[in-house]
Amino acid sequence: MDLGNIGLIACTNTVFPDDENFDLGVHFFVDDFRFLDIYDHPEKTLAKFKQYRFCCTPDCSVYGEMSPWRQMESVAHSRWIGAFWQSNGMIVVPTVSWDSYASFEFCFDGIEDGSVVAVATYGCRQGRAGFLRGYSAMLDHIRPEAVICYGQPFPGMPGRIIAIPPQNPRELHRELPVLKRAKH
C-alpha cells in the first residue's frame, strides 16, 4: 500500500458513484449505529466502498462497560467485514481499538504482523494514559509498518504515524447543502 498522500472520508459521507473522492480511504470513526447494517448486509455497500482507495475496517466500539463477550463480538465483526472486503478485492486497513488490559487478550487478534493499521485519538474515551497503554500493547503484538492516526497523535506515540486531522461534523454539514446546490 502506498502510504504517501493519505486522506480519509467518513463512511457517512460516502456516495455512489463518487468521482471526486476515489483517491481517499474510508474511515468508520463515527457512532456505531451509523454503520451497523454493514455487518448484516455487507454486499449492499460493497460497490460503494470498493470505489475508494482503501477502507479502514469499522471501528466497532470496545467500551469498558460492555461485557467481555460483547467486546469480543465487536472485534470479530470488524475483522469479519475486513475479511469480506479483502476477499472481494479491496485494500483493507484494520482499525484497532481497545479498552482495558483485559481487552488486550483479543483486540489485536486477526491482524497480520507488520500491517498498516488505523487508530483514533479523536474522542478517545479512555484518556491519554489508557490510550497509550493500549497503543504500546498494539505495537508489541502487531509491530505495524505504519499507523494511520485519526486525530492529533498524543505525545509519546512511537512508530511511523500518519496523522489525519478529524473532520469537524458541524462544519462539514454546513458545507454539504452548499456543495449539493453547486452541483445541480
Could you explain how this protein is built, in words?
The chain has one domain (8-183). 33% of the residues lie in helices and 14% in strands. The protein is built from five helices and seven strands. The strands form two sheets. Strands 1-2-3-4 form a four-stranded parallel sheet. The protein has a three-stranded parallel sheet with strand order 5-6-7, with no helix packed on it. It has helices spanning 37-40, 46-50, 68-87, 127-142, 169-183, and strands at 8-10, 25-27, 54-56, 92-93, 116-120, 146-150, 161-164.
Record the SSE blueprint:
Elements: E1 8-10, E2 25-27, H1 37-40, H2 46-50, E3 54-56, H3 68-87, E4 92-93, E5 116-120, H4 127-142, E6 146-150, E7 161-164, H5 169-183
Parallel strand pairs: 1-2, 2-3, 3-4, 5-6, 6-7
Descriptive tags:
4-stranded parallel sheet, 184 residues, disordered C terminus, alpha/beta, globular, 3-stranded parallel sheet, single chain, 5 helices
Number of domains: 1
Shape: globular
Proportion of strand residues = 5-15%
Helical fraction: 25-40%
Q: Terminal Cα separation, in Å? A: 36 Å
List the secondary-structure elements in sequence, H or E.
EEHHEHEEHEEH
- Give the overall pLDDT as a whole number: 89
Largest beta sheet: strand ordering: 1-2-3-4
Counting helices, strands and paired strands, the structural category is: alpha/beta
Number of strands: 7
**Major β-sheet profile:** 4 strands, parallel
Low-confidence runs of at least 5 consecutive residues: 170-184
